[in-house]
Amino acid sequence: MEEEVKVLIIGSGPAGYTAAIYLSRANLQPVLYEGITPGGQLTTTTEIENFPGYPDGVDGNQMMVDMRRQAERFGAQIRTGVITRVDLASRPFHVVVDGEQELRAESIIIATGATAKYLGLPSETKYRGQGVSACATCDGFFYRKKDVAVVGGGDTACEEATYLASLCRKVYLIVRKPFLRASKAMQQRVFNTPNIEVLFEHNTAEVLGDESGVTGALLRANDGSERKIDISGFFLAIGHHPNTELFADQLQLDAEGYIVTEGTSSRTNIEGVFAAGDVQDPHYRQAITAAGSGCVAALDCERFLLR
Ligand code: NDP
Q: How far does residue 152's CA lie from ligand 1's centre (Å)?
C-alpha cells in the first residue's frame, strides 16, 4: 500500500530544514527527502559569517548537521532519497522516490534550491573534475601555490577569487563586462588583493588541457584579440539555475525557471504546493533568506492543512 504523508518537503537546505522544524513542532509529522546534495549548497562552502547568532562564524556543513538535528528533535522524518516524479494534477499528490517507491502527499513544500551554471564549452565538460569546478571552496585546496582562473563578475566570483588568492599563487578573474557586478565591499577586496588580476571584457573561448587535466585557457577579448593563460584550475562563478525540471510542465515558472509564488507568500499556482528558498528566489539567495522562506512555507502549509 502506498504511504500517505501530510507534508512532503523536497530538499535539505536551510529552507527545507527550517520548514521541517516548524512543521514538526506543529505536530504535522513532515517527511523530508534530502535529494541529490544532502544539506544543499551550504555544504560546499566553508565558513559562514553572516548568519545571525554565530558571532564567530560557523562551518557550512556543521550548520546543516545542526539544522537536521533540530528538525529530527521534534519528530521530522529526514530520509535519504531523490524525488524522481511528481504528479500535481490532483490531491493527494502522487510522488515517486528513487524511481520506484511511491507515496501520496496531502501537501508539498518544494525547497530544491539551485545549481551552478557552466559556460557550455565542450572542453569545459571534458575537464570537469580535472581542473574545472564550480566550487572554489570545495576544490580550491587542490590548487595550492598554483595559478587558477575564476569566471564571473558577481559577488560569488569575487568571493571565490579572494578565497583562492589566499591559497594559490595567482588568480585571474575573467569578467565579460568592463565592470564588476559585485557589491562595492567585495570589489574592494578583489582590487586590494595583489595576486588577483582582473581581466575585464574577456570571454573564455576554450579550456585547454592534457591527460593530467587543465593546463590553460584561451581567452578572447571584446576587441577580438586572443590571449592564452597558463592555469591548473578553472572555476565557474557565473550564477545558478533553479532546480525545477521536475515541475516544469506543472507549476507556473518565470522566464528563468524559478517557481512563481503569490505575493509575499510561498503559495504556488497549485493549492497545497508551496515553494521556499533559492528555487523561488532569483534575487537574495542567502542562507538566512532561504531559512526565512522555509518558515513562511511551513506556516502557509500549516494553515492550508488546518483549514
Ligand atoms: P550573479 O548573477 O550576481 O553574477 C553572475 C556573474 O557571472 C555576472 O558577473 C555575469 O556577468 C557573469 N556571467 C553570467 N553568465 C556568464 C557567461 N556565460 N560568461 C561569462 N560571465 C557570465 O551571480 P552570483 O552567484 O555572483 O550572485 C548571486 C546572488 O547571491 C547575488 O544577489 C549576490 O549578491 C549574492 N551573493 C552574496 C554574497 C554575500 O553577500 N556574501 C556572496 C555570493 C553571492 P554580467 O554581469 O555580464 O551579467
A: 6
